[in-house]
Amino acid sequence: MTVLIIYESMYGNTESIARAIAGGFGPQAGVRLVEVSQAPVDLPDDVELVVVGAPTHGHGLSRPQSRAGAAKEKPVISAETGVREWAAAVGISSRRPAMATFDTRFDKPRWLTGSAAASLAKLLRRRGFAVQEPPQSFFVEHTLGPLRDGEMNRAHAWAATLAADLRSAGKEPL
């Protein structure tokens, strides 16, 4: 079984969380980690779980304008394509892998900051995918970062929880 982790990142914080999540599945798991511009829109048949993450922009998922605005601050990683565009283009087949979503955002109530992960989960559900876990947020200290202390460990632990959930469903991540 394979886990596909797709991330959109502006300044590297979401990418760092995605890498920590990848490490949390352990050495036996078949984990593919890809930046969203390289993500397949036709999901491979062996993928059992897709974990998708993005930074929170304007209370939700980035748009071309918000990515362009972010690039004015500092060069960005995901300049052209975001997970919003990927989710709108990903192919729907009879075999739909489980999905989980995460984001990076400020540690404030979600009604104040919004959540890219919650927006993405809603979009994926509307497209017919089963989002297995509640959206997960990881926190940054400032727009440019860094991540709040302990967030890498939390991301690693969340991946272990996702792997355990797959095992209990009879889908061993190997």
- Helix fraction, binned, reads 25-40%
Mean pLDDT: 91
Q: Which value, in Å, is the CA radius of gyration?
A: 15 Å
User: What characterizes the major β-sheet?
Assistant: 5 strands, parallel
Write down how many β-strands occur, each being a DSSP E stretch of 2 or more residues: 5
Tell me which CATH architecture applies here: 3-Layer(aba) Sandwich
At CATH level 3, the topology is: Rossmann fold
* Uncertain spans: none
Topology readout:
Layout: E1 2-7, H1 13-24, E2 30-35, E3 47-55, H2 64-73, H3 83-89, E4 98-106, H4 110-113, H5 116-126, E5 136-140, H6 151-168
Molecular structure report:
This protein is of the alpha/beta class and 174 residues long. The protein has one domain: Rossmann fold (3-Layer(aba) Sandwich), CATH 3.40.50. The chain is 36% helix and 20% strand. It has a 5-stranded parallel beta sheet with strand order 2-1-3-4-5, with helices on both faces. Strand 1, helix 1 and strand 2 form a beta-alpha-beta unit.
What are the key terms here?
alpha/beta, five-stranded parallel beta sheet, Rossmann fold, 20% strand, 174 residues
Could you provide a short overview of the structure?
The chain is of the alpha/beta class and 174 residues long. The chain has helices spanning 13-24, 64-73, 83-89, 110-113, 116-126, 151-168, and strands spanning 2-7, 30-35, 47-55, 98-106, 136-140.
